[in-house]
Design a protein that fits this description.
The chain is mainly α. About 80% of the residues lie in helices and about 0% in strands. It contains 3 helices and no strands. The radius of gyration is 17 Å and the shape is elongated.
């Protein structure tokens, strides 16, 4: 019986994790560029809770798309 944790499966997991994080960062930077204001300033300095919720929802949405693309 073959072990589930082989070097090949661990390597593939690390590769796809790094790939997914990289794509997420690029997607989030793209989202930030399309907004007409500075997200960090609005959320942290202006305490815009509504924008923080939207940004969190976008982050979850991007993550779901990436996970579906990699898994599928």
């Amino acid at each position: 019986m073959e072990s589930f944790f082989t070097l090949k499966t661990i390597g593939a997991s690390i590769f796809y994790s790094v790939l997914g994080i990289g794509i997420f960062i690029l997607g989030f930077i793209g989202f930030d560029k399309f907004t007409p204001y500075n997200l960090w300033k609005e959320i942290v300095e202006e305490k815009n809770i509504a924008l923080a919720i939207i940004v969190g929802a976008v982050a979850i949405g991007i993550s779901l798309i990436i996970s579906s693309a990699i898994h599928g």
